[in-house]
Amino acid sequence: MTDVFDTQTHERAEAIIARYPQARSALLPMLHLVQSVQGFVSQAGIAFCAQKLDLSTAEVSAVATFYTMYKRKPCGEHLVSVCTNTLCAALGGDAIYTRLKEHLGSDTPDGKPLGHEETVGTPGESGSVTLEHAECLAACDLGPVLQVNYEYYDNLTEDKAVELVDALRAGDKPAPTRGAPLRDFKTAELELAGFFPEDEETYRSTVDAPTAAEETVRGARMAADNGWTAPAMPAKVAMPEVQKK
Amino acid sequence: MTEPRKPAPVTPVLTKTWLSPRSWTLDTYTKLEGYTALPKALKASPEQLVQLVKDSGLRGRGGAGFPAGVKWSFMPPNEDKPHYLVINADEGEPGTCKDIPLMMADPHSLIEGCVIASYAMRAHHCFIYVRGEALHCIRRLNAAVREAYQAGYLGKNILDSGFDLDIVVHPGAGAYICGEETALLDSLEGRRGQPRLKPPFPAAAGLYAAPTTVNNVETIASVPFIVNGGSDWFREMGTEKSPGPKIYSISGHVEKPGQYEAPLGTTLRDLLELAGGMKDGIPLKFWTPGGSSTPMFTAEHLDVPLDFEGAAEAGSMLGTTAVQVFNETVSVPWAVMKWTQFYKHESCGKCTPCREGTYWLTQILERMVAGNGTEADIDTLLDVCDNVLGRSFCALGDGAVSPITSGIQYFRDEFLALCDKQKAAPALAGAQA
């Protein structure tokens, strides 16, 4: 059987292992790495990690099945995660998720609403989209939110969400509200494994992509506008005296 | 005697630089006095730094509020084994959204704090465990770590002090339980994220069974400011037992949701004023002071001081100061059901009360919200909660019952109203003896 993982992936796995005092700590980023190659954690991916870390495949499977970000079926080009936790749901997140299930489902052969972690289109092909509901995505002040490949799309409405997935289906990549220019699920997984664009200009363009949501800086801006500040720091601060041990 | 000066309603310390262009870069951070605390800290002794943080009264910002300096002092003074500092950046408590904007806007204050804290605890290896879904934070942190190495703030012999430190940014993979510090350590060791029995506490046997301290992002990012300003300065904000500024994250039905860094002890009444009041003027119904695991409050609690003591005295917890505001249009049993579904999904399965309890609580609540509940279901809910609270392996179980018990405490009528349909159903012939 030929190895589905190329030399570069083997080298990357070794580089991840080298980051840690103990090799097994590399397992979570390595599972992200295998997802970046195949778009999910396959049996081959599990065997790959097990072999690199001298673990049994059962031990690796136990870990892979525990975490929701490791997908057991091939993901589409894009993963759309809609927050349906209480606050986002109350603000419209549940309605957005229901609408996307129906809207994307109408594009499948059976036309039924898409289920959790189901895909419209063919994984590996442009415009394929996997839909899931997600737990709180820690952007509550910007709700309702969703993520595409873990980049944030904030303050959504049903219509805006439909427009977004239509663009994804058509092969477009609308920019997130906060996050790097959209690429695909596999690239996001590669970055989670700790591998970023090597070309400096591309790299900085991902790091420096705009993120200053008004909500994030609201308190700071209000303080600046009103001349409110924290108390001034003293000019000189002495360290406390302690007894020498 | 003069009255102590009252701090401004918003006191930006951590959030102050967020308005600056490219605030996440080393360039901007150093222009705004970044990395000025580090040389001072490295000239002091580790014991002095621990004492400084103790004196400041800084309490953990991850929810539990344990005094940070005391936690640091649990680390052994010798270096028989390697010491580790682990940053809990696994923000996932529903409603909580402070660490992710912090790491996006200002990763260097966290990194500077990591170097100071590691030096104080004699750690030469620091891990920042970031929630996997926070990809852009991971990207910015990696870039900041890279810049810090190049500038000599990380690596060997930092600023000629002889102190060495390496930082690794570690991605999580989607598990709320990994915010529990011992589950986080198991996860960081490449295992399923399940909590460990304590004791031993992490300071005795943490990562790789070596002395470890786990601290929240906001806690550690506060440290450079405490080194620069001193403990007395820090205590000018907040209350005696809960000093300092705190990032309050206001979300939900308010006009201007967002991050407001205010002195600890600020009330919801004050926060609502900052946030422009209730959205469209629809009255407040219920709110959480610090995430879904903190028992809910109502309009009766507008003047509760939101510090660790004030929230506890009023029957809740300060948690992560994730203030989720819900107006009159939201059903309490529905909200409680949604939160319970969350805990059921995130229960790690290790202990029976939490695994089975959250499963059955979800079933009952779903049945009630669907209109198929009975009055007896309320008692069953409370009975199951009683068997989860304090009987689970970790705090997830305790958090899971908070929305249910507080929801029934304040809004029992709403739960009862859901049972009306069953009550109205005609009795079957012969069923009544």
TrEMBL record, chain A:
It comes from the Bacteria. SUPFAM superfamilies: Thioredoxin-like. InterPro entries: NuoE-like, NuoE_dom, NuoE_N, Thioredoxin-like_sf. Residues 106-119 have a biased composition (Basic and acidic residues). [2Fe-2S] cluster binds at C83, C88, C136, C140. The keyword Iron-sulfur applies. Its cofactor is [2Fe-2S] cluster. Residues 106-126 are annotated as: Disordered. GO terms for molecular function: 2 iron, 2 sulfur cluster binding; metal ion binding; NADH dehydrogenase activity. Keywords: 2Fe-2S, Iron, Iron-sulfur, Metal-binding. It holds the Pfam family 2Fe-2S_thioredx. Binds 1 [2Fe-2S] cluster. CDD domains: TRX_Fd_NuoE. Transmembrane segments: none annotated. Belongs to the complex I 24 kDa subunit family. PANTHER family: NADH DEHYDROGENASE [UBIQUINONE] FLAVOPROTEIN 2, MITOCHONDRIAL, NADH DEHYDROGENASE UBIQUINONE FLAVOPROTEIN 2, MITOCHONDRIAL. This is NADH dehydrogenase subunit E. It comes from Herbihabitans rhizosphaerae.
Automatic annotation (TrEMBL), chain B:
It is an enzyme of class 7 (translocase). PANTHER family: NADH DEHYDROGENASE [UBIQUINONE] FLAVOPROTEIN 1, MITOCHONDRIAL, NADH-UBIQUINONE OXIDOREDUCTASE FLAVOPROTEIN 1 NDUFV1. This is NADH-quinone oxidoreductase subunit F. GO terms for molecular function: 4 iron, 4 sulfur cluster binding; FMN binding; metal ion binding; NAD binding; NADH dehydrogenase (ubiquinone) activity; NADH dehydrogenase activity; quinone binding. NDH-1 shuttles electrons from NADH, via FMN and iron-sulfur (Fe-S) centers, to quinones in the respiratory chain. Residues 333-378 form the NADH-ubiquinone oxidoreductase 51kDa subunit iron-sulphur binding domain. It comes from the Bacteria. The keyword NAD applies. Belongs to the complex I 51 kDa subunit family. Its cofactor is FMN; [4Fe-4S] cluster. GO terms for biological process: cellular respiration. Its EC number is 7.1.1.-. InterPro entries: ComplexI_51kDa_subunit, NADH-UbQ_OxRdtase_51kDa_CS, NADH-UbQ_OxRdtase_suF, Nuo51_FMN-bd, Nuo51_FMN-bd_sf, Nuop51_4Fe4S-bd, Nuop51_4Fe4S-bd_sf, Soluble_ligand-bd. Pfam families: Complex1_51K, NADH_4Fe-4S, SLBB. Keywords: 4Fe-4S, Flavoprotein, FMN, Iron, Iron-sulfur, Metal-binding, NAD, Quinone, Translocase. It catalyses: a quinone + NADH + 5 H(+)(in) = a quinol + NAD(+) + 4 H(+)(out).
